[in-house]
Amino acid sequence: MKTKTLQLAAQVLEAAPADLVIEKGQVSVQGSPTRAVSLGKLAQMVEEKPDLIEHEPPNPVNGTPVEGLAAWRDFSSPGSTYASGTHLAVVEIDPETGELQILTYVAVDDCGRVLNHYLADAQIHGSLAQGIAQALYEEVLYDEEGQLLSGTLMDYALPNASMLPNFTTDFIESPSPNNPLGAKGAGESGCIGAPPTIVNAALDALAPLGITALDMPLKPEKIWALIQEAQHNIKDIRLV
After folding, report:
1. For the stretch 156-175, what's the b/e string if a residue is b when 16 or more beta carbons lie within 10 angstroms of its beta carbon?
2. pLDDT value at position 237?
3. Which of 21, 107, 155, 214 is deepest in the core (most CB within 10 A)?
4. Each residue of 125-152: pLDDT tens digit?
């Protein structure tokens, strides 16, 4: 589609396609920004006179004609793409109640080429909320007879905004070689990275007590019980 756009704009601007640039919603002659035509105008011209550009074959999936300033191409990735990132959390645990508070959360993710930083950042925020909820709040409970006790959102804890910290996020862009956009995944980065990040931060905070294992969700009563048990063991060791 870019090639078609430049070829059409070259006719309008009487310039070689190689001398044209597309930016800010228009095509202009490089070095002469006043010689320009908007993408909307080019699309309108093709709608009115379809023969201005080369016709595309019909969509091979459903046979629908590809009309206007558009193109259809098939692509099959030669392999999977994998996102990566580093997440860091600083937490504080109240030994009297077992309540865990997230003081700082930093997430730096590499999801390949970022086309829209605002939307990518929003995806990370949403998935971080999901991951932190899994680490701290969400729990499926059954009674002794196997009856589900947390079957509605009245019983199954989901966090609201006041229960989540401010996130510091950033991106490192290393394009994937397996697709034309260089894109990788982004939407699941937070829900994959946040649970182990929160648990590891909690274990670091509890390390002086000798606590080396925690099961999610890290509810206050669970942490409090582990603290009490650890302190009791420490006293026993001192007595011996």
Report:
1. beeeeeeebeebebebeeeb
2. 56
3. 107
4. 999 999 999 999 999 999 999 999 998 8
Cβ atoms of 9 and 19 within 8 Å: the answer is: no
Which tokens is 181 given?
A: 């956009």
Look up residue 95 and give its two tokens.
């030994």
Structure tokens at 70: 């558009």
Residue 152 in tokens: 């509605």
Interstrand relation of 32-38 and 26-29 (parallel, antiparallel or unpaired) = antiparallel
Query: From CA 176, how far away is CA 11, in angstroms rounded?
Result: 35
* For the chain, percent of residues with pLDDT exceeding 90: 62
How far is it, in rounded angstroms, from Cα 192 to Cα 53?
Answer: 46
Task: Please check the confidence at residue 102 and state whether its pLDDT lies above 60.
Answer: yes
Inter-axis angle of helices 39-48 and 2-13, to 10 degrees?
A: 90
Single-letter amino acid code for the residue at 9: A
At which residue do the structure tokens 């206050």 appear?
A: 220
User: Helices then strands (H, E): number in the chain?
Assistant: 5, 6
CA distance 68 to 71: 9
Q: How far is CA 11 from the centre of its chain?
A: 41
Which residues, in sequence order, are bridge partners of residue 88?
A: 106
Return the amino acid letter for 216: M
